[in-house]
Amino acid sequence: KKLIFLQALFLGLLIILSGFKFVVFDLNFYMKFNDNKEDTLKVIEYLQEGKPLNGFTDKEIIHMTDVKRIIDVFLLIFYLSFVFFIFITCFLIYENKFDKKVFICGALFAVVFLIALFLLSLNFQSLFLNFHQAFFQDNSWIFNEKDKLVNLFPEDFFKSMLLRILAIDFVLAFFAIIIGLASNRYYKQNI
Questions:
Q1: What residue spans of the chain are helical by DSSP H?
Q2: pTM of the full predicted structure?
Q3: I need a surface site. Which of 18, 32, 85, 104 has the fewest CB within 10 A?
Q4: Taking Cα atoms as reference points, which of 14, 32, 28 lies closest to residue 154?
Q5: Are 24 and 147 a contacting pair, CB within 8 Å?
Q6: What confidence category does residue 91 fall into, taking pLDDT thresholds of 50, 70 and 90?
Q7: What span, in angstroms and rounded, lies between the C-alpha atoms of 106 and 176?
Q8: How many CB atoms lie within 10 A of CB 172?
């Protein structure tokens, strides 16, 4: 039972973090919010590969260091969740204890989290403020309107990113529920 719970938890985390993984390095998405491809590409390359952020202020670089750290942690959780989900699934199949309802449970865990996040996003400024206060050092995330990062990534960028992530995650959760329902139906018909 504990393994099945962990399997559902890891699937839920995979669903929740998949939208983030799809969007976080998508240059086409970033370019919808500014026309400075050179600096936008520098930021993405820094976040992906740690390449230097030439042309940015020290404060912006400190902030982007924090952003990179957070992205790296989220991606690590994503990959670990994937590995543990596959490992537990294989083990349970081998032990003949795999429960197809795990897809439904994992998806429902994700949906509850996603609905809560969506409701919090209705007051986006508050969500944005609380997120930054919780995850960033000092006031490294507060910039004036002339700073490059503010112009590259306006508030609408973050709102749109969150909505896109939520949309992707809800679709994935829906498919996980369909897989769970279909596999249970198939399993019952073939007993």
A1: 2-23, 27-30, 37-49, 58-94, 102-121, 124-135, 148-152, 155-189
A2: 0.89
A3: 32
A4: 32
A5: no
A6: very high
A7: 8
A8: 20
